[in-house]
Amino acid sequence: MTNRMSPMKKILLYTFLTIGVIVSVFPFYWMFVGATNPSGEIFNVPPNFFPGTHGWENFKNLNENIGIIRVMGNSLFITLSFTALSTLICTAAGYAFAKFRFKGRNQIFFMLLVAIMIPYHVTLIPLFEIFSVVNWLNTFQAVILPQLSYPFAIFLMRQNMQSIPDSLLEAARVDGQASSISSSVSFFRLCDRRLRLWRSFCSCSSGTISSGRWSSCSLRRCTHSRSRYPVSSACRVSTTGR
Amino acid sequence: MGQSNVQEVESTPEKRKKNKWITPKTVPYFFVFPAVAFFLVFTVYPVISSLMLSFQTRQGSEYVFSGLDNYIRLFQDGLFYKALGNTFLILIIQVPIQLFLAVIIAVALNSQFVKMKSFFRVAFFMPAITALVASSIIFMIMLDENYGLVNYLLSLVGVEPIAWLSDPFWAKVALMVAITWRWTGYNMVIFLAGLQNIPGSLYEAAEIDGASKVKQFFYITLPQLKPIFVFTFVLSTIGTLQLFDEPYILTDGGPNNATLTITLYLYENGFQYFDFGYASAIAYVLVLIIGVLSWAQMKWAGDDE
């Protein structure tokens, strides 16, 4: 490409991008303004565009009303345990699919791929029934367990592991680690750096998806008391009452 | 699978002979087992179970087999058609607008003259990482008919207050605005990745041949982005067909079911009327629609090559 661009065009380009950024970011700012001003002032006409000093009081009220600290703790617990377990399970499966040939490999992998296309709504009702039968309603495991084995993450892990040369695995074996388990462990250590980015991406995306899904539909049914709410549910219930 | 399970159980008491079970042949099963086990219990079983449920209706407290009754009822259900219509209207109007915006922003950001690229990228991506509930609530506040910010700003330029959330037409618009706000940046990042894979030599060649920037956009950029278009289009279609949180929080399907979507209707039937059989039938019709649409989009994309 050439290096010429008229100043006029540059200004247009930046104006366009800036407007886009304002539209994207303004709601966040507005949330902040609302959170730091006395309740109800977010509905003032004309509106107040600047952050106020009521942030701490609002937070205290929130904690009295819905126990926000507890709720944040719930979210933190769910997210951390989900991410840790899901990463472990999906990495292990991705590794097996990428670096081993075994009976049934293609069939299992195909089954996982098909599952990506099935809308999760199909599973809501039976899951709700399972959880009520085993008395898991209103427990954390009902939120954490169902999506642990996340096909998209397994798929990404497999793709990424395939790009790591087999010679690394061979090297680990030659280094005298006789059993396959320990050579696998050292393989993981070797490719740790290359995988870190992908791993964080996978866990991040699966975490987002699971929290989003479960906050919306069935979480409401599976965790119906405040002591188990994550932030999103508490937020919705206290605003809309639903 | 069952085989590796048995081995796992047996290997624990006799620790010394552990290596007997862990051989290069069995190792992959150990790695795959947890994922497959969770998958069977929490995905495969529910999928099959709800397929069975969709052929059953509740009589008293029992579910009894009723053949295709749920599906027949569904095809005579005016509200279902309404939900279907709403969902497709959003699909037809909102998805093209969103993808168009995403491409334009991606192309602008990809320009070598833009400084602070990562700042812009993060700013545009921020809506996508917000909790759906939070973003829906903030839109609810901003779009309030009497006290909302949007109507205030419109009043400054002399526009009458708009009943964003209680007028059937404007409620649909509000819903589309909220979805577009949330997902444009997400698609933009995917397009940006695609743009960066287009070899620069193509543009150099076009430059030498004297093609204008506009021509380059239409004859190089767009064709090269085609796979990305298909990918984002399929993703957005599936996402729109499963649309739930925004209408649930912003409008609760109202006014007068103007923003009722398929999944919202499914949820109402399942968890408000506890008609699990009927809700499962809705879910499977949705599966069918998504399957057919995804297949058609892939096919259409594949045929051209």
Report on the structure:
The complex is a heterodimer of chains A (242) and B (305). With 242 residues, chain A is mainly alpha-helical. Chain A folds into two domains: 7-53, no CATH class; 66-240, MetI-like fold (Orthogonal Bundle), CATH 1.10.3720.10. Chain A has eleven helices and no strands. The radius of gyration of chain A is 24 Å and the shape is extended. The N and C termini of chain A lie far apart (55 Å). The model of chain A is unreliable at 212-218 (pLDDT under 50). With 305 residues, chain B is mostly helical. Chain B is 73% helix and 3% strand. Chain B contains 15 helices and two strands. A two-stranded antiparallel ribbon of chain B has the order 1-2. Chain B starts with a helix and ends with a helix.
Task: Describe the structure in brief.
Chain A has helices at 7-36, 55-66, 68-99, 105-117, 121-133, 141-144, 151-162, 166-174, 180-216, 219-222, 231-240. Chain A has two domains: 7-53, no CATH class; 66-240, MetI-like fold, CATH 1.10.3720.10.
DSSP summary: helix tally of chain B: 15
Shape of chain A: extended
Task: Give the biggest sheet of chain B.
Answer: 2 strands, antiparallel
Q: What class do helices, strands and sheet pairing of chain A give?
A: mainly alpha
Question: Which fold name is given in CATH as the topology of the largest domain in chain A?
Answer: MetI-like fold
Instruction: Determine the oligomeric state from the structure.
Output: heterodimer
How much helix is in the residues of chain B?
over 70%
**CATH class placement of the largest domain in chain A:** Mainly Alpha
Radius of gyration of chain B over all CA atoms, rounded: 25 Å
Q: Greatest chain-chain interface?
A: A-B, 82 and 87 residues
Uncertain residue ranges of chain A: 212-218
Overall, the morphology of chain B is globular
Q: Reading side by side through the largest sheet of chain B, how are the strands ordered?
A: 1-2
Query: What structural class do helix, strand and pairing data of chain B support?
Result: mainly alpha
Mean pLDDT of chain B comes to: 83
CATH superfamily of the largest domain in chain A: MetI-like
**How many E strands of chain A?**
0
**Helix content percent band of chain A:** over 70%
Radius of gyration of chain A: 24 Å
Strand-residue fraction of chain B?
under 5%
Instruction: Supply the number of structural domains of chain A.
Output: 2
